[in-house]
Amino acid sequence: MIPEARNRPGDDPIFSLNMEAVERAKSGAEVINATLGALFADDGSLAVMQSVIDTLRELPPERGAAYAPIAGPPSYIDAVVDDLFAGHPLHDQAVAVGTAGGTGAIYNAIQNFLEPGQDLLTTSYYWSPYGILADHARRGLATFRMFDDDGTFDASALGRALDAQLAAQGRALVVLNTPCHNPTGFSLDDDEWAATIEVLLAASEKGEVALCLDYAYAEFAAERDGRWRDHVAKLTGRVTVLVAWTASKSFTQYGARVGALVACHADADERRRLENALVYTCRGTWSNCNHLGMSAVTDVLTRPGLRERLERERDEIRALLAERVEVFNREAVGSALRFPRYEGGFFVSCFTPDPIAVSDRCKERGLFLVPLQGAVRVALCSVPKAKIPLLVEILDGAVRASEATVPSDR
């Protein structure tokens, strides 16, 4: 192996924690597993949308077994672009390629919008695989303060970080996960979006800027009216807009590895260059994606009656998750827990100066969380509603105990 590969870690920390929780539960211990970003029903079974399962079963074997085009089947690409932008002016400015889930979409963006040795820019709280993807692509990762002192999105910090990056490397790729940010559950509101767009437009005067929206959890937002489209539409022509779309969460098909990277630009020649570059990266990374999964997603999105069935099933899952969010917010009143505005999504993060100690104390009582830098992530998507009051009680006690041991000058 080359030197840089010799000391790499093995399994992802989140999956390792999940396996530890699963093994402890097998021993008969009482466990609350709030580690994994997958939606489970209150009975502990994985929540799935039957419309998607039935469509997968009905597809002719030869359709799924055949090679898919490198970019993805044209019908799939059209369905994804329609899913994002139907009826919006951005629809006619979009090109896309199929990717290996949302992760593949992020990786494709890193490869094409940063040169080796340059850093992508994201929020101070972020999904840890961003760093792995950047490192594996021989790029780096830089962050800006996500929240200001009032708990709102710190667009000014983004502006300062963009200025520094453009001065240092001449270009910037900003990755924003909204709505339902992983790991905090936070979603930008209209005022925060407006401030962000202003910052990005100002930065575009100083260098090349691309904005990549990690759209993984968007279907589970409290507000899904799509106003973000009107905001980002102001960027095209000056800032390349990318959307990392995935079927993992929105179709409950985590294992299918079906996603897409959608790129929007006002110039037709630039769209052609974008599409060529994105397809090239597909060929050089995974070649082509899961044809069966892309075919099923296409059918569910386009067949009369099937889309309506999908939306009914999504509504049920959204309601399940919304109930958990409501219980968590209610139970947290009066506790020591501090967390961002949380209206929907798979996760919420609670701030703490000692996340390892908090995580360890919770684990002693059977609650498994994911420690972050300055917070612990709680995957409410995997916790039955009835267990959320106990989760808050255990986490509250762990935070209070941890803060009691923090030196006063810290």
Key phrases:
single chain; 410 residues; alpha/beta; Aspartate Aminotransferase, domain 1; Aspartate Aminotransferase, domain 2; 2 domains; seven-stranded mixed β-sheet; three-stranded antiparallel β-sheet
Commentary on this structure:
The chain is an alpha/beta fold and 410 residues long. It has 2 domains: 144 residues, Aspartate Aminotransferase, domain 1, CATH 3.90.1150.10; 251 residues, Aspartate Aminotransferase, domain 2 (3-Layer(aba) Sandwich). Helix content is 45%, strand content 14%. The protein is built from 15 helices and 12 strands. The strands form 3 sheets. A 7-stranded mixed β-sheet has the order 2-8-7-6-5-3-4, sandwiched between helices. Strands 9-12-11 form a 3-stranded antiparallel β-sheet. A hairpin with a 3-residue loop joins β11 and β12. α7 runs parallel beside α8 and α13 packs across α15. The protein starts with 12 loop residues before the first helix and ends in a 6-residue tail after the last helix. The mean pLDDT is 94.
Question: TL;DR of this structure?
Answer:
Helix content is 45%, strand content 14%. It is built from 15 helices and 12 strands.
**Element order, helices and strands?**
HEHHHEHEHEHEHEHEHEHHHEHEEEH
Structural class from helices and strands?
alpha/beta
Overall morphology:
globular
Largest sheet: 7 strands, mixed
Give the CATH H-level superfamily of the largest domain.
Type I PLP-dependent aspartate aminotransferase-like (Major domain)
Overall average residue pLDDT:
94
Radius of gyration, in angstroms, nearest whole number: 21 Å
Distance between the termini: 42 Å
Report the portion of residues in β strands.
5-15%
User: How many distinct domains?
Assistant: 2
Strand count: 12
